[in-house]
Amino acid sequence: MCTAIDTEFRMFPVSVPNSGGLFVSLSDTVFGFWEDLRDPSENSSIYGDLLDEDDGNLCSMENNHKAFWEEQYHLLQASLYRSSSIETRVGQATREALKELNMWDMQCLCRRELNVKSCLNCLRREICDRLLNLGYNSAICTSKWRTSSEIQISGEHSYLEVMDNSNTKREVTKVVIELNFRAEFEMARASEEYNRLITRLPEVFVGKAERLRVIINIMCSAAKKNMKEKKMHLGPWRKQRYMQAKWLGMTDRDMTVPLPTVYKSRPRKYKASMLTCDLVENIPGHHCVVLC
């Protein structure tokens, strides 16, 4: 078919004027078109360069993706595995308290759940009491924040806190105890990489405020990256400022107030019922208040 077309145009060459006043042969134009189709080596090299460039961009994006998640994973590992002496002691005491509470079926005092183990409010109070009995300056803290330019929605959060001032050369150390730590960062539409970070988080966190701040930064950066890759909006309750306000903002401290010294110094009074009155009277040096 191509041969017939070639012959036809060679037999009837037609010249047409171009814009510059010169005449261009129509046969030369047509044959130039067919030659471009028959020998696309130059064009193919251009297309090949474009494809190679696209492949290079895809590889670069993939490498950046892997590098980001690997970096977050290693940063999280390093933050979790470093521990000071006060963190170790408070963590051990918290674990022992939880173990003890799991052994006993204690009723929930606020009537929200059947037992203490199912109620975070009662669980916090029981652990706080045990830490106080061990001599720690423990308290239940409730942080509250209002809507602002940095935090789009208001909220509040409760957690345990231990203030340590055993080292007189340093400032008071704040140790945060969060009994539901992992769940605070879980997401419904999480990627495989984000869930890998979640599995490294402890269920119960015990650590200094400085360590917690680093972990929040890591997880919030990962959450932002996760939602961006899915082309979805990041909720304001997932942002860094909001998460920091939960544990690192202004709080109301609620702790068990010890009895005043005046009550501790009072002599103990012996009491007895009418059934034991004669018996107690025969004991020298004891004076009892009879209860009717």
Descriptive account of the structure:
InterPro entries: PDDEXK-like. This protein has 292 residues and is of the alpha+beta class. The chain has a domain at 58-254. Helix content is 50%, strand content 15%. The protein contains ten helices and nine strands. The chain has helices at residues 2-11, 26-38, 41-81, 85-103, 120-133, 192-200, 209-229, 240-248, 261-264, 277-281; strands at residues 15-17, 23-25, 138-145, 155-164, 173-178, 205-208, 251-254, 270-272, 288-290. The strands form three sheets. It has a five-stranded antiparallel sheet with strand order 6-5-4-3-7. It has a two-stranded antiparallel ribbon with strand order 1-2. A hairpin with an 8-residue loop joins strand 4 and strand 5 (173-178). Helix 3 runs parallel beside helix 6, helix 3 runs antiparallel to helix 7 and helix 4 (85-103) crosses helix 5 (120-133). It is globular and about 60 Å long. The termini are far apart. Mean pLDDT is 76; it is low at 1-16, 26-34 and 256-280.
